[in-house]
Amino acid sequence: MVYVFAVIADDMESYYGLKEGGGTELFDMLNFGACALSFVPGLLYDYYGATVAMSIGTIIGVLPILGQLDWSSIFPSLDTLTGLKLSYAIFGMAEAFFSTIATFAPLEAFPVQYVGAVSAVVQVSTSLGASIQSEVYVLMKANFKNFVQAYYTYMLVCTVACGGLMVLAFWENSQLLHRSKTNLPDDLEQCSLKSALLSKNFAYMCLLFFIGVGFVFSYLDAAGEINAAAGLPASRATITFGIYGAVARVLANCALDYTRGNRNGGPMTYIALSLLSLAAGLAAAGIPSDPNAMSVHVMNLFCSLGAGGLLGVSPPALRLLFGSGSLGMIYGLLYLLTAFGIPTWGLLLPLQGCASGCFRAYCCAGAVLFPALALGALLLGRGDVPAQDG
């Protein structure tokens, strides 16, 4: 549902009668909550476990949706935009509970030799969810007169149902979760949070999440406008992002299980391949002065594959590089950098309503930066064979 807000931000702007750019401000606040505040669920997850953290996250997710359904009666003194921005930021933080805990709890519950396959199952759901939720919103908009209120109600039901099921699943399997914190090999067991934060692996991951993951979160908003400027439906970006991204997540994660014992088969190799795919897609749309529909189709394909691969292989990469002792906190700190990366990429985007060629600076910047990041991943991961759990 969070991914879908990149597509529906303009509808929120017109529905509430906000000032021009108000929808973008709401989307930015949503991303701020999901990224800059993601250390909160990470900290709770590390210290109190998945069941307690997910219970808190579900409650936090419900409150802002109730506020969106009837905000004025709860805080009548706040203007509409301020109230919505606060609500979206809180919901974004709640989304961080869902994404962080749903990502890492399975990685801890299963033995590390299956980390790729387990991550693939979780990640493909996330990717396909972007396409499914986009279509749900389109159907609601077409069939409900007050479609925004209908969609908020749908969000409320989904949040309660998904959060409740996750709490039950984590409670039922509580003996499996966090077992790896006391069953790690010596080299990972002694890797404290401080030593992890001072390592070269963490330094590279900081760059990756600021530049690479920050770009991915900004991409759907930009890609919708690029598609529209080239004469394609703006929703095409979300649909291809979900479908091709799911394919990339499955391929990268499943291959990781079979290759990571080899010299060049670790997670850094798949991160590098994902970054090169992003660069290829952006080059197709950025090099021509006025990209046509075909070049934008190429961008949709390669950027979706690259984004899916990058988001999909990053969690198991963190699990393999840093163990699981402080995994939630490390993940949250990295997404804090993503929160700064998103608006940084946004500075390269033009004002709304321009031709497709106006996105050249945005595309060319990625086409140049991502190969450099890919080279860094290959150099860092060369010969690095991750340790096995005992």
From TrEMBL:
The keyword Transmembrane helix applies. Keywords: Membrane, Transmembrane, Transmembrane helix. Coiled coil: none annotated. The chain crosses the membrane at residues 47-66, 86-107, 152-171, 202-219, 239-256, 268-287, 293-313, 320-347, 359-380. This is Nodulin-like domain-containing protein. It comes from Symbiodinium natans.
